[in-house]
Amino acid sequence: MFNRLLASIGIGSAQIDTLLEKSQYVPGEEVRGVVNIRGGNAPQNIDTIQLSVMTEYIRESNDNKFRQHGEIGRYPVSAPFTLEAGETKEVPFSFRLPHQTPLTIGRAPVWVKTELEVRGGVDPGDNDRIDVLPTGAINTVFHALDLLGFRLRQAECEYSPRHGGGMPFVQEFEFVPTSQFRGQLDELEVMFYSSDRELELLLQVDRRARGLGGLFAEALDLDETFVRCRFTEEQLQAGPTVIARQLSELIARTI
To answer: 11: which DSSP letter?
Structure first.
């Protein structure tokens, strides 16, 4: 009875350790691994094991910026069961990494959070960082932007329910022009929306202020234009040079 009481407040309770098959993934890829559980000093009733894909994003309030945790996906991996005292258990799992998972470029950490939901007790947890790399489609766009002379300045996840595609945040990639559009643009922000068969881009084109009218437009954010475009899998297979030409024409129409 005393051991049950201690376990209910987290002393001598169950412990978990999540082992992922690897540490690098691309959005849409299957994530596999096992959750290792070791029982404590007394039996405990486990409601479920939950895995969540987590990240951080920047939110602004009263002119102050702070970092907030965001859940990208949640996956139950077990039915209720009783974990006996000292028992060891291995629970395998697999889930698909959501397409909207941020790339771990810049200040965008991503981790898999494991929670053991214990009935009437403290829920033990485990966090495992992963690297999220660009898909082949996103790499093609990155290469195309490089061909146009755009240099990546920063990448951050920011609070933006309007552009989040169902998420409270969106990852923004901020590029500066170094050749073709230098002198015409201050910056180009790119947001990616991936699916199995196409890649959608939301471009925020920030034109450089020209003259007094341009300065007023810049002060009122009227110098920024949002443009959406989609590339199918077949179009992306044509290569970065073709994509660069299409992006160049699209951007030029906004200047």
So the answer is: T
Q: What is the pLDDT of residues 150-160, one digit of tens each?
A: 999 999 999 99
Residues 6+ apart with CB under 8 A from 101: 27, 53, 55, 72, 73, 110, 132
Render pLDDT for 80-89 as a digit per residue (tens, 0 to 9): 988 888 899 9
* CATH code for residues 2-132: 2.60.40.640
- 173 contact partners, CB below 8 Å, separation of at least 6: 105, 152, 155, 189, 190, 191, 192
What is the DSSP secondary-structure string of 60-91? Answer: EETTEEEEEEEEEEEEE----EEE-TT-EEEE
Give me the percent of the chain exceeding a pLDDT of 70. 86
Q: What band does 120 get if pLDDT is binned at 50, 70 and 90?
A: low
pTM of the model as a whole = 0.85
Query: CA torsion angle for 38, 39, 40, 46 (degrees, to 10)?
Result: 120
The residues spanned by each domain of the chain are: 2-132, 136-252
Pair 55, 108: CB distance under 8 Å:
yes
**Cα–Cα distance between 129 and 208 in angstroms, integer?**
39
- How many C-beta atoms surround the C-beta of residue 151 within 10 A? 12
Q: 10 Å Cβ neighbour count for 77?
A: 18
